[in-house]
Amino acid sequence: MPLPLLQLIGVTKRFGAPDSGPGLEVLRGVSLDVARGESLAVVGPSGSGKSTLLHIIGTLDRPTSGRVLLDGTDLATLDEQQLAAVRNRRIGFVFQQHFLLPQCTVWENVLVPTLARRASDASQPPAETGAETVTARAERLLRRVGLGERLEHRPGQLSGGERQRVAVVRALINRPQLLLADEPTGALDHAAATELGQLLVELNREEGVTLIVVTHALELARRMGRVLRLAEGKLVENGT
């Protein structure tokens, strides 16, 4: 049986109380296996810990206890520099707000994540002949999401849906194994949200990237291959 790309084993997250009381336990022994190439939605009410769970998976936060394994590597064994490399190379992030650099063009925003990688790869041997270059990948993906004519535009010249599509391409530019999306359609109107949801599903298949979406939107959740509900700190299957 193939090794899951992502494994959570007994993950607990507790936030301390200001008065040194027992604190708040947001995640309670969460365990989860996510296969390579799978698409998964996590739904639940506000404050249930959905974003906290996603941040722990994405190494933006650490669990109070439990283990998170990415492609067999226990993330708790990595130092901060190694975790930064994981976030840059192996995980892509899409948030409710696009976080594009307003002074940069679409093209420049998409290539920002490649700068650190290029610096670290400077001493490495050249990639195999015929491999897709970073610039070719950027152009291909931008055309794929319908932004081939917007390369020199800045974020302020784009619609909300277009800005989120740029953010998706930026998240995919370094060929991550795992794409994490936290309420990616939350700031969009219905038409743009529907378009972005369909695009995420298609890119999950086309790029072979494992996709985990945290969302309040059941319409988006139902597009995923599996839906989980976070309730009282536990994940429950078939949240819809």
Architecture overview:
The chain has a single domain (37-62, 79-121, 133-237), classed as 3-Layer(aba) Sandwich (Rossmann fold). The strands form two sheets. It has a six-stranded mixed sheet with strand order 6-7-8-3-9-10, with helices on both faces. Helices cover 33% and strands 24% of the residues. Helix 3 runs antiparallel to helix 4. It is α/β, with parallel strands linked by helices and 240 residues long.
Please give the structural blueprint.
Layout: E1 6-15, E2 24-34, E3 39-43, H1 50-57, E4 65-70, E5 73-74, H2 80-89, E6 91-94, H3 106-120, H4 134-144, H5 160-172, E7 178-182, H6 190-207, E8 210-214, H7 218-221, E9 226-231, E10 234-237
Parallel strand pairs: 3-8, 3-9, 6-7, 7-8
Antiparallel strand pairs: 1-2, 1-4, 4-5, 9-10
Shape: globular
Order of strands in the sheet with most strands = 6-7-8-3-9-10
Helix content: 25-40%
Second CATH tier, the architecture: 3-Layer(aba) Sandwich
* Largest sheet geometry: 6 strands, mixed
Number of folding domains? 1
String of helices and strands: EEEHEEHEHHHEHEHEE
Beta fraction of the residues? 15-25%
Structural class: alpha/beta
Give the N-to-C terminal Cα separation. Answer: 28 Å
Q: Would you tell me the overall average pLDDT?
A: 91
Q: Output the CATH class name.
A: Alpha Beta
CATH superfamily: P-loop containing nucleotide triphosphate hydrolases
Query: Number of DSSP helices?
Result: 7
Q: Over all CA atoms, what is the radius of gyration? A: 18 Å
Q: Could you please say which CATH topology applies here?
A: Rossmann fold
